[in-house]
Amino acid sequence: MKARTVRLWSMVHTWTSLISTLFLLLLCLTGLPLIFHHEIDELLGYAPQPEAHASAARATPQVVADAALAADPGRVLQYVSWDKDEPGIVTAFTNSAPDGAPDNATVRAFDAVSTKLLGPVGVGPMLIVLKLHTDMFAGQAGKLFLGAMGLLFAVAIVSGVVLYWPFTRRLRFATIRDSAARRVRWLDWHNLIGVVTVAWALVVGLTGVVNTWAELMLNQWKATELASMVAPYAGKPPPVRLASLDDVVVRARQAAPGMEVAFIAFPGAPFTSSHHFAAFMRGDTALTARLLKPVLLDGETGEVADIRALPLYLQALLISQPLHFGDYGGMPLKVIWAALDALTIVVIGSGLYLWVARRRKRAPAKAETFARRARVPS
């Protein structure tokens, strides 16, 4: 590789890394506890626990919905969800209006058998960590900004890989020059750990970028696919009386054989129309359980109105979300994700140290050059 090309790649690597460093450290530091968010919530007592039942039958969806409305008088249901990993719990979202803002929603967990209120969901210190990680409390603008930092991170990774060979071609792989100066030893560690974590960092960085576009993707789906699905109901008044949620669930399962209901959006909620229930169905394998298929059902009769697969960009989003946090392989994968996260923090920190040390080393040389030029007579 020519010296000029190396300098160009070095400049790209340096400045993309420096610009994104502070925010990458924030993302890595907040992402570390988020890998174990469920375990931390349980430890701190913020994770609702279902009651013990000896193979008792689960309450019907309508009974759960009635319990949720009774627990929050004067409000309406937006969503009811069933977590595949927590079969003993049903989660209900209530709000002041069907199209109420997400920040105004109340999220509660109910026992799937007795429908007893188990407590609120999404509270506690991990909520603060999550907000810092996703948007820094700046809403959609914060998400898009962090997405831009993620793209810079991806460029820094690619440029670092390009530079790895020219800077280490005379050394054996994984060589750490212990007898060299501190800055050189840190450079060797920076290169080694960077190479070890490169694939993981690139995957997590890019899936994080995709996640920051989630709201934009959903808005696109609502403006195109969903609008097409509900077009036959244009101009019709919303239902006066809603169909039984039990009938909605049964008909949704019939429309999507081999799939189970992940969550149901009630008429007027952001994920459906004012005329329809939307049952989002999931499969029963590790991959298909993450991919959803929406079934639209008439809000008054419960009859199936339309069923379509989600577009590829939303399927990519659904896959990227668990992949970002390693949330699909149990505790062993979480531990691996946490170790790689910690190593990435070392790479970022060592990169910042190397930049500072390099500038300090250059400062005396520049001062000496300036003094020498000043002594030269004009």
Structure description:
The protein has 2 domains: 3-11 and 135-212 and 331-375, no CATH class; 42-125 and 214-325, no CATH class. It is 56% helix and 13% strand. The protein has helices at 3-35, 37-44, 61-71, 125-134, 139-168, 182-212, 214-230, 245-255, 312-325, 330-375, and strands at 76-82, 89-95, 106-111, 117-120, 260-265, 276-282, 292-298, 304-307. The chain has an 8-stranded antiparallel beta sheet with strand order 4-3-2-1-5-6-7-8, with helices on one face. α1 (3-35) crosses α5 (139-168) and α5 runs antiparallel to α6 (182-212). The longest helix has 46 residues, at 330-375.
Short note summarizing the structure:
By secondary structure, the chain is of the alpha+beta class. The protein is 56% helix and 13% strand. The protein folds into two domains: 3-11 and 135-212 and 331-375, no CATH class; 42-125 and 214-325, no CATH class.
Layout of secondary structure:
Layout: H1 3-35, H2 37-44, H3 61-71, E1 76-82, E2 89-95, E3 106-111, E4 117-120, H4 125-134, H5 139-168, H6 182-212, H7 214-230, H8 245-255, E5 260-265, E6 276-282, E7 292-298, E8 304-307, H9 312-325, H10 330-375
Antiparallel strand pairs: 1-2, 1-5, 2-3, 3-4, 5-6, 6-7, 7-8
Helix pairs in contact: 1-4, 1-5, 1-10, 5-6, 6-9, 6-10
